[in-house]
Amino acid sequence: MQRRTLFGAAFALALSFSTAWAAEPIVIKFSHVVANDTPKGKAALYFKKLVEERSKGAVRIEVYPNSQLYKDKEELEALQLGAIQMLAPSLAKFGPLGVKEFEAFDLPFIFDNYEELHKVTQGPVGAMLLKKLEGKGIRGLAYWDNGFKQFSANKPLRTPADFRGLKMRIQSSKVLDAQMRTLGAIPQQMAFSEVYQGLQTGVVDGAENPASNFYTQKMHEVQKFLSVSDHGYLGYAVIVNKNFWDGLPPAVRSQLETAMQDATKYANDIAKSENAGDLENVKKSGKTQIVVLTAAERAALKKAMAPVHAQMADRIGGDLIKAIYKETGYVQ
Questions:
Q1: SS3 29
Q2: pLDDT in tens, 194-253
Q3: Taking CA 170 as the corner, what is the angle to CA 167 and CA 175, rounded to the nearest 5 degrees?
Q4: What are the boundaries of the signal sequence (predicted)?
Q5: Which of 191, 286, 304, 331 could form a disulfide with 160 if both were Cys (CB 3.0 to 4.6 A apart)?
Q6: Does residue 16 form part of some domain?
Q7: Is residue 6 part of a domain?
Q8: Residues facing residue 226 across a β-bridge
């Protein structure tokens, strides 16, 4: 009798601990390096809203924008160590991590439009690339668009000759390094959070960004010209710490996956309109002159940068580049 009483008391105690534990929300720290009013920033907040509403508070998403927690070079290590659970880094970040295949997204002019791009990110090639992250302790959940990049400087950039000798900020990417060198520019790796000051002080002469990043980071205050080149793509992979993800209850994982699908559609739907709106905001500011390249000028830039594809084939993988060409119909 005494043994049954002790067992009952132990069971009740365990149940009370279990109930208390269940009452604690699962917290996911979601860190990123851009502003809340960019496509990525808005999508992160939308994901937070969906998850917290649908889980009725059982899961809490804490969003930390603008490098509040970690800068470009720190965030992936923080995720791998479990200091944060979720990131949406630019695809260029995975090359230095050792997954060089992602640098295919940095190849100049490899995508002409969103339709071509989504054949890759929403198809088997994109899924295969996300799978490669698992060996690094990372689970890839989705691709989010930011948009196509434009060149900025304190002089108009229309022809390859215009880039000669300019110090151009790039992300840490061998492909972007080769891209700038092919144009005769001097690539300068710099954390995104430091770009405004770098442009302001002349540490770098120019940069490449989608209009949304250019405007929300106030680069129009320190750059006189923005050339609408659409020469490259900037996108993100939403990723989580794999151990954390695998340790979640299956029902929670399913709920997060559904919310991520909806947030991804939202992110990609707004990317194009946000960039168009921020390009207009740059124009209205009167501080930066918009340079719209002619079809011939854009074709000349594409031709000048085409050798980068062949130069990077051994690094990225020639078969992968050909698979992307097949999806997009790329022609030099």
A1: strand
A2: 999 999 999 999 999 999 999 999 999 999 999 999 999 999 999 999 999 999 999 999
A3: 110
A4: 1-22
A5: 304
A6: no
A7: no
A8: 152, 290
